[in-house]
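S.,

Sequence below, as promised.
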Amino acid sequence: MKPTMAMVLGAGLGTRMRPLSDTTPKPLIELAGAPLLDRVLDRLQAAGVEKAVVNVHHLADRMEAHLAGRTQPEIVISDERGLLLDTGGGVKKALPLLGDDAFFIHNSDSVWIEGEHGALQAMSAAWDPAVMDWLLLLAPVERSIGYGGRGDFAFDGGDALRRRRGDESVPYVFAGVSVAGPGVFDDAPEGAFSLNLLWDEALTGKRLHGVVLDGVWMHVGTPAALEEAEGVMSSGSS
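The prediction came back faster than expected:
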């Protein structure tokens, strides 16, 4: 069953995007004429998502006002004004709003140029809870704009993943989107924690899987990276 729900992680402080994020929430910073958040929600809607839960913290009133006029997908706010819960804690807090089936977890600044095949549609088609607890969207390092690291993951037989070891370089970087079911949070800690904690648990049983993005991923983490992504978008490069 393809996911029809999504969690959009919009509560971060956007510290590396300063000074732009001092007055504008990072998800509302524009890339090529459209806020990053709207690009995410448009793509989720196109992939069949009917309801998106968006968490808010930094400049939360601005986020809520922007989202108030959106009807597709349906928007529900998960309020983290009182305590920022990191990626894992934010999703766990929102679980009562996300239903009983698998859902997308989408960073609010994750953008890419699609290739021949839609990335979220490919994730929906690949999702198989019988063999995986998590399905991550991966971008080839060589087709990632604004990223200068050594990668995050390599495949460890089939679609199962392993993390980068030590100083090695691996082919793929996490592209900011995953699929999971609510059950993976059953034993998760209270309060703030990273999704990486749950990924590491899934790695032990080879239940962390991946789909490779057929396109160009843009790591829009800093003003310089935003400017680079603007150039790529305006040129129509893919």
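The radius of gyration is 17 Å.

Coffee later?
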